[in-house]
Write a structure and sequence with these properties.
72% of the residues lie in helices and 0% in strands. By secondary structure, the protein is mostly helical. 11% of the residues are buried.
């Protein structure tokens, strides 16, 4: 089985699902976008890219990558760890709040997954979370979860 075709079909299905879900929300117009507008555009882009990948996989005959080759010598602990950390982030975001959850999540990502030294991990985490908080809460006036500590 061709790896590009599998990826293309997965991307196509995912993009169509995002478009369908976004369409269920109000799309709005370019002048007054609704809550599903950005998701619909994102899903459309994913579908477009998937169609390009699928088309190229059918046109290229000589260098097709087999799906079994992709699994050889693969190290799945990093993507699995990142997926579990993102799931944990989503589950505790409302309880602990944006600031604390983001600090913990990014510190674990930089120290454990990326193997940064402690000073660098702490510095990059603090800078990224502070800048994100400043951008979303202060400048854009977005409502971020405050959590149990009120920040």
């Amino acid at each position: 089985m061709n790896a590009e075709r599998v990826g293309g079909v997965f991307g196509l299905a995912f993009g169509l699902a995002v478009m369908y879900g976004s369409f269920q929300l109000e799309l709005g117009t370019f002048q007054a976008p609704g809550s599903g507008f950005l998701g619909f555009l994102t899903g459309s882009f994913v579908v477009l890219m998937a169609v390009i990948v699928l088309t190229q996989s059918f046109l290229a005959k000589d260098n097709q990558v087999k799906l079994s080759v992709l699994w050889k010598d693969s190290k799945w602990w990093r993507p699995a760890t990142v997926a579990l950390l993102i799931l944990a982030y989503v589950l505790v975001l409302e309880r602990l709040g944006f600031f604390l959850t983001s600090l913990l999540f990014m510190l674990v990502m930089f120290k454990w997954v990326e193997k940064f030294p402690w000073p660098k991990a702490v510095l990059v985490t603090l800078a990224a979370v502070f800048c994100s908080y400043l951008l979303f809460h202060t400048l854009l006036k977005a409502s971020l979860p405050q959590g149990v500590f009120g920040f």
